């Protein structure tokens, strides 16, 4: 299996969970060191904004581990700003990484899955893609777009035994949330019915389920892992 953005945060936890389950895992990284990916995973350099880089990353994963039967498109960026101050470049960069980048990865990965007549595609979206968030028009648009991508893909490749699903995390304990002022963190927690942030491991557990045989009849779904924050959306 291959997970993009596997060197930190949610992607790191997903890759680590599959390694712990005995799977052969390739985890991509764009910046930083190959040592940042979980122990036991194959570290693969990849920039999802480049078709050539994506192709090279999948080719290396296939050469080392064989056909990629599970792909998790997790790589993403944020460039938050109020809409009147957001530049074309910032908006385009977020979509190119979060949405078009996922498309590049899925397009390349499903090539092998179609030959195998089996496979699992999981796209990591966000509660923001469902509920919206002030100052995140680019991020929200990119994450909402993943739902349309996954559902169209599910209809297209379903007859070949390939599923495509979306996981939509809410507020999750990461380095980014830890850096927020305590007052801001408390305000976020008050909006969550369960009264706490989620963990990256909890997101990873849902991804593992969607990649399993137990989820063979689940496709085109959006699974929230948000403590109830986005319920009804």
From TrEMBL:
Report any Pfam family annotated for this entry: adh_short_C2
UniProt-recorded Gene Ontology molecular function terms: 3-oxoacyl-[acyl-carrier-protein] reductase (NADPH) activity
Please name the InterPro entries in this protein's record: KR_dom, NAD(P)-bd_dom_sf, Sc_DH/Rdtase_CS, SDR_fam
For this UniProt record, the keywords arranged alphabetically read as follows: Oxidoreductase
Q: Does the keyword Transmembrane helix apply?
A: no
Enzyme Commission identifier(s): 1.1.1.100
Q: Which SMART domains match?
A: PKS_KR
**PROSITE patterns linked to this entry:** ADH_SHORT
Domain named Ketoreductase: which ranges? 2-170
Q: Which domain of life is it from?
A: Bacteria
Q: Which family does it belong to?
A: Belongs to the short-chain dehydrogenases/reductases (SDR) family.
Kindly give the PANTHER family that the UniProt entry links to this protein: 3-OXOACYL-[ACYL-CARRIER-PROTEIN] REDUCTASE, SHORT-CHAIN DEHYDROGENASES/REDUCTASES FAMILY MEMBER
Report the protein name in the record: 3-oxoacyl-[acyl-carrier protein] reductase
Q: Which species is this UniProt entry from? A: uncultured Quadrisphaera sp
């Amino acid at each position: 299996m291959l997970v993009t953005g596997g060197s930190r945060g949610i992607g790191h936890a997903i890759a680590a969970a599959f390694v712990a389950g005995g799977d052969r895992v390739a985890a991509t990284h764009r910046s930083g060191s190959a040592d940042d990916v979980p122990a036991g995973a194959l570290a693969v350099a990849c920039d999802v904004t480049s078709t050539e880089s994506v192709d090279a990353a999948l080719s290396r994963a296939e050469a080392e581990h064989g056909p990629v039967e599970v792909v998790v498109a997790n790589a993403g960026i944020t460039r938050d700003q109020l809409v009147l101050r957001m530049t074309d470049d910032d908006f385009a960069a977020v979509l190119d990484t979060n949405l078009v980048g996922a498309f590049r990865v899925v397009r390349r990965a499903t090539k092998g899955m179609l030959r195998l007549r089996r496979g699992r595609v999981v796209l990591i979206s966000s509660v923001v893609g469902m509920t919206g968030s002030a100052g995140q028009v680019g991020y929200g648009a990119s994450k909402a777009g993943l739902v349309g991508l996954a559902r169209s893909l599910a209809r297209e490749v379903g007859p070949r035994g390939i599923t495509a699903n979306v996981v939509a995390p809410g507020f999750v304990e990461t380095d980014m949330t830890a850096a927020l002022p305590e007052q801001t963190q408390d305000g976020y927690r008050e909006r969550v019915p369960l009264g706490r942030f989620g963990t990256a491991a909890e997101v990873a557990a849902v991804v593992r389920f969607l990649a399993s045989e137990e989820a063979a009849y689940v496709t085109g779904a959006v699974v929230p892992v948000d403590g109830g924050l986005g319920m009804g959306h």
